[in-house]
Amino acid sequence: MHLENPAIHPERTLLTIRGVTHSYREGDRLRPVLRGIDGEIGEGRFVALLGQSGSGKSTLLNLIAGLDMADSGSIIVQTFELNRLREPERTLFRRRHIGFVHQFFNLLPTLTVLENVALPGELNGFSADESRHRAVMLLDEVGLGDRHDSYPDSLSGGEQQRVALARALVHDPLLILADEPTGNLDSATGRHILDLLDHTVRRRGKTLLVATHSREVAERADAVWELCDGKLMF
Length: 234
Ligand code: ADP
Ligand code: MG
Description:
By secondary structure, the chain is α/β, with parallel strands linked by helices. It has a single domain, classed as P-loop containing nucleotide triphosphate hydrolases (Rossmann fold, 3-Layer(aba) Sandwich). Strands 6-7-8-3-9-10 form a 6-stranded mixed beta sheet, sandwiched between helices. A 4-stranded antiparallel beta sheet has the order 2-1-4-5, with helices on one face. Helix 4 packs across helix 5 and helix 5 packs parallel to helix 6. The longest helix is centred in the last third of the chain and has 17 residues. Magnesium ion (MG) binds next to helix 1.
């Protein structure tokens, strides 16, 4: 692994998960999905989260992003203890410190490519110029420097995912979470997205957790977590 950012220390833990459980309510019953998850990720590391469909990968990513609350246990991202934050603070935490890449891209259809990428910068208080400048740089990095004014629905799936990757990085988040980012793409396009994730994220010394079915993604990661029966196998 090559890190170009000397401020990054892999021995320093960025994400700590301890005893996390989560159930979903089904009528008057609770169905446990996570039954006691423990894990740690060091700064600048890339971890692949494997598990069959329905094993709880998205559930775990949503908890780490602060989109939902664990029933018990703790999730700490750098100095942020998510279970101690109230809802508005969790929203701010997510907006400021998490970059999320979704399987289905989730770009805003009424905004141009450049506007989609710049938006998280502006939401985090960067000036319009600064946000735009960062967005332009990132779009160049993902090879879409000539598509600033296009709308998402005129792009291919792979192009939309490249926009989504640029958007996930624009506000310089602590942690990138990607939920099956190659799951909706053909294998060659998926490989390109994987290369970009690996390079653009690692070049910045960002920490990356990717939920995936793909063994190829797992092979590129520094560590693999496998979700099975609500627990992590290492
Ligand atoms: P994965 O991402 O690994 O496919 P999920 O985390 O999406 O798995 O789902 C884990 C389990 O929790 C599945 O059985 C799914 O049906 C269930 N589940 C997910 N979200 C909800 C929800 N909002 N309400 C009820 N059940 C849910
Ligand atoms: Mg999922």
